[in-house]
Amino acid sequence: MKTLLHIAIIACVACACQEQKPQGYTGNNTIIFYTDNLEDEDQITQTFYWAAALNPDSEYDTCWVDVATVGDAVDYDRELKIVQDTAIGWNYLYDLVGNLVDSTSYIIPNQAVEGRHYVPFDDEGLQRFMVMPANTYRTQIPIVMRRDPDNNHTLTLEIRLVDTPTAKIGESRLSTCQITIE
Question: How many angstroms separate the CA atoms of 145 and 114, rounded?
Fold first, then answer.
């Protein structure tokens, strides 16, 4: 009986220790803006400070935005395309115990203007950077800021990734990025 009990224990241990192969990603291969800090935010945000530029008095400077793949890397370059959206803010109303009871949206004032506050995204000089290179999972794309000497406000630039023939966009909240220009 003791031997039978030892054999049963060894058989259970042998079955429990079988190697399990991890399951690969089975969803669609998509592109998103990358961040490692979504716990405190509803969307991806980035702040660009003219005062922190290498030359704060220059007419142009660049804000680099991280873009990542969800799924497998592919063996060809994927064209990336971004557009400007209207930046929307939210006011939330809570009851006395902290439950959300209402919300209203508003258009954030002082939105960046294409050509005046940033170089258009379809500018010929930027096109070579608007690519997720083959066999990569992450890259950076440039948002070229343009100094407006007449502006003394904080500006907001809301950008959104859009589908291209070679790149499909993933989760909607990760396909927009709000850049604050100070």
Answer: 10
